[in-house]
Amino acid sequence: MKLGTRRRTLLAFGATAPLVAAASACGNEPGGGPDGATAWGLTGGAEEAMRASFEAWNEANPDNEITSEYFANDAYKEKIRTAIGSGNAPTLVFGWAGATLAEYVENEYVVDLTADTAALIDRVLPSVAATGMIGDKVYAVPNNQSQPVVMYYNNDVLESAGTQQPTTWEELLAAVEALKGSDVIPIALAGQSVWPELMWISYLADRVGGAECFNRVTAGEAGAWSHPDMLRAAEMITELVDAGAFGDSFGSVVADAGADQALMYTGKAGMILQGSWIYPDIVTNAPDLVSGGGLGFSTFPIVEGGKGDPTNIVGNPANFWSVSANDPEAARQTATDYLSEAIYDEEHVDSLIAIGAVPPVVGLEDKIAAAESGADFLTLNYEMVRDAAGFQLSWDQALPADQAQELLNNLSTLFLGEQSAEEFCAAMDATL
Amino acid sequence: MAAPALILFGFFAVVPLFGVVALSFVHWDGLGEMSWAGLDNWKAAASDPVSRNALWLTVKLTVLCVVFQAPVSLLLGVFLAGRQRYRALLATLFFLPLLFSSAAVAITFTALLDPNFGAGTALDAEWLSQNWLGDPELALYVVVFVIGWCFIPFHTLIYQAGTRQIPKELYEASRMDGAGPVAQFFHITLPMLKYTIVTSTTLMTVGSLTYFDLIFVLTGGGPGDATRVLPLDMYLTGFRSYEMGKASVLALVLVVVGLAVSLGLNRITGASRMDSRSEG
Which of A74, A250, A280, B105 is an S-S bond match for A9, by CB 3.0 to 4.6 Å? Predict the structure, then answer.
């Protein structure tokens, strides 16, 4: 799962050319004056808040300016990799933490921020700060909002099917049956995009087997995927698909254009499991549903007898800044000063909340409750992150790129029923 | 006189090609150091079921594309070369797809084929609301259809031009001998279009080997790997899995197959001995 806009960028095109482009480094000289630093960010999402934060910093520190550039998601991911590998990275490296950060650290592309950002880390909610740490050292600090994955419900649809928001796995299955009976798709799922399917397996694995279930995978333990808890989670996916929980055409539904959430808010589906980032879109597209109290949201149902802590959540803890080891000392100093002073200062926090984003900062309850719109949703979002025993980073970010791709392929065939749960686990074991 | 073209070709085609050859013998994930891989990437690509499936899908896609596009564009081209009423209007309509970019076409078709919000719902036509792009059995055929929709106008244009080159005398003479339109088509038009057919089919075949943008936007290779053809497999391996070495192997396979197919087609059909057929 990526943050904010998931739209495939058309920049990624050009059949065979990209291979060649990757071989030659994209030269980009660090700028911003002798002591200045550079930063690359993403367009969309919380871009406004990031721009505002840099502008405020530059006004206050004219000698240590930070120049920022913004890229579309996919284009950025390709560019940053070659830039880092060839020593042309910006001072502030935008990222998702996870396996990519581990690779940066292993190759010494980014610096240890533990001492320089201690003040910032004190302000950050622990479950989010943990994502930017490797061992007990901080290599990345959050720079925007937390985006947990949430269950959304169309209460009107649930009501006319004579059912309600499920809080347990059994209730979920019962709700699926009831919704099928009233001729709607029980759960909207964007199967063509595949990544929304990750949310299901991540939550189920966590509820059944606890955080250890996936930690065994990231630790590279042999047979981690065929552990009974993981196998059970995969079987539950098959049970849902066989019960018709996602309808029979989820493979054609694309999340990038919001067709999955549209199913839910137009009343063609009863519920959807999606990131908190879709909430502003729902408000825009279905204002009547939201104002009439027809939109419900909650945490993922618990699984009776499961080992997982019910407060555990899945999603994007935040996006992160790391500092490139390649840049001159002065630029790095500017960057770390910016991180410890400007990230999540009063102004930054306000600008995030203003766009409906919840920064992972301690003690924001009152500010969020006073938000102009959607205070109830933002509060749920904030409390989920604040109270979470663990915040599991999206699996496709947590795993190395090649394993993540194998996971997406195999998960897609599991959902399509072309692969059984056992085959899925065996195929994934082979990637370890 | 050819120097500028040769320099461009050398710089943008030959030099990168050598780069790709070199990359195919190393392990490189875009980060960190490259390490010598020997034949590892080649072995991995040969034994990977996903890549083998991609190769098979590419062959299948090529055959299906030619089988679908060739007859339709031949018939349309011959029709548009005639003098029927409304022909000019129809010709304009047929050629419209030529003006659209592949990405725009793919995004539009994804929206039209959406089972819940697509054309089926708008027109209230149940049969149109299929799981078009989500059913592994159907997706490839939908892709073939959309590719055809994009490229048939181009080939129609070639056939139209080819048909207009055929001397009128042949038709007049055959009419005196009592040949009807069907007989004329099979005994005059088709044989006279032989080289046009060769040209168009070669373009279709080589084109089918490299379709990328349309499929990437339409299905992303899915569902599962039902439409993950070789160019897409190369892209995903290189820029999603960051296995640059293996992706380079796939790129080289594409280059070799593409060259072999177009040379082979030329040889088999005798296009290299192409001569003028202007007077029967």
Answer: A74
Q: pTM for the full model?
A: 0.86
Compute the nearest-CA separation of B61 from chain A (Å).
17
Query: What is the rounded CA–CA span in Å between residue B149 and residue B89?
Result: 18
A378: in domain: no
Same domain, A309 and A195: yes
Q: Distance between alpha carbon B240 and the CA centroid of its chain, in Å?
A: 24
What are the backbone dihedrals phi and psi of residue A7, each rounded to the nearest 5 degrees, phi first? -60, 135
B130 near A CB under 8 A: yes
Query: A416, B254: Cβ pair inside 8 Å?
Result: no
* CB-CB under 8 Å, A84 with B251: no
Give the CATH number of the domain where residue A327 resides: 3.40.190.10
Q: Are A164 and A298 in contact (CB under 8 A)?
A: no
Claim to verify: residue A18 and residue A123 sit in the same structural domain: yes
* ipTM for the predicted complex: 0.84
In a domain, residue B85? The reply is: yes
User: pLDDT digits over B84-101, tens only?
Assistant: 777 778 888 888 888 888
Nearest chain A residue to B237 by CA: give it: A402
The answer to whether residue A24 sits within a structural domain is yes
CATH of the domain at B177: 1.10.3720.10
Query: Is the minimum CB–CB distance between B50 and chain A shorter than 8 Å?
Result: yes
| Helix intervals (H) in B35-138 | 40-47, 49-81, 87-95, 102-113, 119-122
Task: Let me know: does A272 contact A188? Beta carbons within 8 Å.
Answer: yes
Record the tokens describing residue A234, joined without a space. 């995969």
Mark residue A293 as left, alpha or beta (left: phi above 0; alpha: psi -120 to 50; beta: remaining).
left
Contact B24, B42 (CB under 8 A): yes
| Domain total of chain B | 1
- pLDDT tens track for B204-229: 998 888 889 899 999 988 888 899 99
CB contact under 8 A, B244 and A10: no
3-state secondary structure of B2: coil
